Amino acid sequence: MVFLFILIVNNNTNLIVTETRKNLKEVATVFFKLGCFAFGGPAAHIAMMEDEIVVKRKWMTRDYFLDLIGTTNLIPGPNSTEMTMHCGYERAGKKGLFVAGIAFIFPAILITALLAYLYMKYGELPEVTPFIFGIKPAVLAIIASAVLKLGKKAVKTTELAVLGLLVLIVTLLGVNEILALLSAGVLGMLYFYVKEKRSTRLNSFSPLFFSSGFGVVLTKLSTLKVFIVFLKVGAILYGSGYVLFAYLDAELVSRGWLTRVELIDAIAVGQFTPGPVLSTATFIGYQLSGFPGALAATTGIFLPSFLFVLILNPFIPKMRHSKILRYFLDAVNVAAVAVMLSVLLVMAKETLLDWRGIVIALTATVLVFKTNVSPIWIIIIGAVLGCILIRCF
Predict the structure, then answer these.
(1) pTM of the prediction?
(2) Any idea which of 8-12, 176-180, 311-315 has the lowest mean pLDDT?
(3) Backbone angle region of 127, left / alpha / beta, with phi > 0 → left and psi within -120 to 50 → alpha
(4) Which of 29, 40, 111, 266 could tie 44 with a disulfide, CB 3.0–4.6 Å?
């Protein structure tokens, strides 16, 4: 009897281990593939992720995916990279978190490191403009598809629709995205709480504000100092690549470690390589201290994101069980979709400047909404069309 019990336990354990390994392999494969083709910034990355995770593989519901987007927008770090970590955590636990994050950023880091080596050796970057020209309008259609699908889930009431419209307007007028998200969350939470007219005890909730605790005086350049600088930036960074530029300008250019021209080239590399723009850190780290510097900068800037997600993820289901926090999360979710829409409108204004961009955008729109072509193939088709149209016309 005891032997039979031990045999059953061993078999169950083996099944669990096998399933975990299978899930980890799946997580690594999915996010490595996304990392190779994730062009267009966080909104595009999240749109591609939604297609892979929710539509194709059904790892989670679209509602829960929206919750992850909402909470991710409230913490420092690269949103799309942190979304991969959340999805990995949901699929394969804590190991899945690290596997997903590393798999997603690895292609960008590898490409950026190679470009850094070529830049240091030859003093210039390769010509990729024709391909990027085609990728940008193709990405617009992918983002539009995600905004529509996520918007249908996020806009649950007329009040939430109005709130989303307000967020869209203020972000287009230049209000900081994080301020808009937090304000929408608080406003929605208070409104729906009052509307409910229930005597629910309101637990005190204070958001976490992360600040740098480093007071190191950088008197000379070393791998450790490179790590500390990028760790600090990763711990407090909100916003786009332009915000990253401002942080790095203050940390590096003002100290004389890097010229502004070199920093602009580094940011450009982050913009036209797949994956997160924070791969810029790899490029700069290599410039500052060779391969050890690249490794130190990359580890420093991404490490806070892994820690934030590791701490935050277990609390997301609990937020749904709290009425007052659910109101907050619903409002933040609709605000996050509004922010994605504002990004789409700004990108369209900057991208659709001539007939070639419009042709590529229309082609991508037909493929996205009328066929089952994968977003990854749409990116590739856009890049090829861009190259052909630039070369021929």
Answers:
(1) 0.72
(2) 8-12
(3) beta
(4) 40
